[in-house]
Task: structure prediction
Amino acid sequence: MKYVSLILYYGFAIYLPKSNRPYAFKITKPIRYHICKNILEYCGKNVNIERLAYFGDGQGISIGDNSGLGVNCKIQRNVKIGNDVMMGEDVMIITNTHNFENCDIPMRTQGLNYISVTIEDDVWIGSRVIILPGVKIEKGSIIGAGAVVTKDVPEYSIVGGVPAKLIRSRKQSKKVVNLKNSKK
Result:
């Protein structure tokens, strides 16, 4: 069943319109969801796989309830995504790295290592974020658009930049500014 689902997904379902289109939501989201349930290692309830999301053969990939893969995202194997995770467009989650220890032979012939990535519950990943091998993003964190995440992200953190750095904790009190009424 997995191979049939892979053919259906990459041959047809991956090209269906985005699920936020008014004419497509009731059709495209369930079609991709039901196909991907047979591909991914685990696929929770109400998971949204967006248009052009690529995840290879789904090996070692689990996605929790109410989470989603953004438009045109690329995810390699051995990724665990928790519940209530939001993901923007063009996100890349990289888990493989080339071996390079032996300087006597070309790196391309030394093989690959897969180092898992974990994204805990209630995380928001902005557009065009790159997450590198071995990273753990703890619950409640926000990753700013365009960030390159090279290290673990503590819970309830807001990070951004290249490489991603802590901007602030979500648990700190913050004065709310109404931008409409603020003076320039």
Notes: The mean pLDDT is 92. DSSP finds two helices and 18 strands in the chain.
